[in-house]
Design brief:
The chain has helices at about 60-95, 135-140, 195-210, 225-230, 260-270, 280-300, 305-315, 330-335, 370-380, 385-390, and strands at about 100, 125-130, 155-165, 170-175, 180-185, 185-190, 215-220, 235-240, 255-260, 320-325, 345-350, 355-360, 360-365. It is α/β, with parallel strands linked by helices. The protein has a single domain (about 95-390), classed as LCP protein (Aminopeptidase). A hairpin with a 6-residue loop joins strand 3 (about 155-165) and strand 4 (about 170-175).
Length: about 400
């Protein structure tokens, strides 16, 4: 019998006594695992249930900083708005205050006895030009139109300026100074006598009675002062279509375009001798000069810049006086409202001419009553654009001005 094989296993070590395990501390609950898709801007929003998780509250420090930024921003904007408005108000008050005001410029007759105002926002202004060659205003430091004195001077120029409701068109109509009219309290006489006898109020009443147009504002212009204003804008360009020979004190004007300074422009608007139409041609020269001056101002961008506009008002204040109903703010807004006006939007013309005549030994100008009535009606109703379409052959100012 074969002997049993010897076991190769090593004898097992005696089993050690196990000690009882210490109790484990409870584990903190684990946060739910976030998927990669939950971190992507392209992944689905919200948890697996489809509900958006509640937004995490913004830290208090960040909220306070956001509020401070908003408050500072609003404060800066408020300062800018108030500062800009204040600067514009100061500009209007400062520069417009340089314009002399005329008291008692309107008739004292009851409102019911005067023409009705223009509908909507249209405006009619009466421009009265004086030429005080020997007046103190000629040599004084200011060239503003001098205060009226009975019998001291007759008005040299009368123009009706109509501004449309939207301020996108303007019409300027000259009334010849020798126009034969009825002057309240004085009977029939030349139009320019009204200013001499009763000042601005009588002139305003006379024009209102003649045209049936309510005058909203009055401006008295001193032609002497336009020398300084012309020089202030750098002169004006005026074309003389044909050579005008000098007669008496009038100078000779060569045909062509002339760049005129203030002194030359004043000679240009004053002269009437040697002109084919006499005083009627002189009114056209005055209109032609005003048109050239207007073009110069528009080309410089003055009407679209509040600061430049203020400077223009200061210069105008040295040559123009206005009625005291026109406040500083009104004056600035009136000028600012014309910023969209273009040269082609301004029409110049003489009142319809009905011929020359002699009355009481005086050479006078007569109006053509029927076309004049149509013109006044258009101006009363703010329909000047339609009037010019219907009356293309009227006495309008063209480029050919002697």
């Amino acid at each position: 019998m074969d002997p049993k094989p010897e076991s190769t296993d090593e004898p097992a070590e005696p089993a050690q006594r196990e000690e009882p395990a210490e109790p484990e501390e409870p584990a903190e609950p684990e946060e739910p695992a976030r998927s990669a898709a939950g971190l992507s801007i392209f992944g689905p929003r919200g948890d697996e249930t489809g509900h958006d998780p509640a937004p995490a509250p913004e830290p208090p420090r960040r909220r306070r900083r956001t509020r401070r930024v908003l408050l500072w921003t609003l404060s800066v904007l408020l300062v800018l708005v108030v500062g800009t408005a204040g600067a514009l108000y100061w500009t209007a008050e400062h520069y417009a205050s340089s314009v002399t005001r005329i008291p008692d410029a309107f008739p004292t007759v009851p409102d019911s006895a005067q023409p009705r105002p223009v509908p909507a926002g249209g405006l009619n202004l009466l421009l009265v030009g004086l030429d005080p060659r020997s007046d103190a205003a000629t040599t004084g430091s200011r060239a503003a139109a001098p205060a009226w004195q009975a019998g001291a001077a007759r008005s040299d120029t009368m123009m009706l300026l109509h501004l449309s409701d939207d301020r996108r068109s303007a019409s300027l109509v000259s009334l010849a100074r020798d126009t034969w009219v009825d002057i309240p309290g004085h009977g029939r006489a030349k139009l320019n006598a009204a200013y001499s006898w009763g000042g601005p109020a009588l002139m305003t009443e006379t024009v209102q009675n003649l045209t049936g147009i309510r005058i909203d504002h009055l401006a008295v212009v001193d032609w002497n002062g336009f020398r300084a204003l012309t020089d202030a804008v750098g002169g004006v360009d005026i074309t003389v279509p044909r050579t005008i020979e000098g007669v008496g004190e009038a100078r000779r004007w060569e045909a062509g375009t002339h760049h005129m300074d203030g002194e030359q422009a004043l000679l240009y608007v004053r002269e009437r001798y040697g002109l084919p139409g006499g005083d009627l041609d002189r009114t056209k020269r005055q209109q032609n000069f005003l048109r050239a001056l207007m073009l110069r101002v528009m080309d410089s961008g003055t009407l679209t810049s509040p600061s430049r506009l203020g400077g223009l008002l200061q210069s105008v204040g040295e040559v123009v006086s206005v009625d005291d109903r026109l406040s500083n703010t009104d004056l600035f807004q009136l000028a600012w409202g014309l910023r969209s006006l273009r040269a082609d939007d301004v029409r110049f013309m003489n009142a319809p001419f009905g011929g020359f005549d002699t009355r009481d030994g005086q050479s006078v100008v007569l109006l053509d009553e029927r076309p004049a009535a149509q013109l006044w009606e258009a101006m009363r109703n703010d329909r000047m654009a339609q009037y010019f379409q219907d009356h293309r052959a009227g006495d309008t100012l063209g480029s050919d001005v002697d």
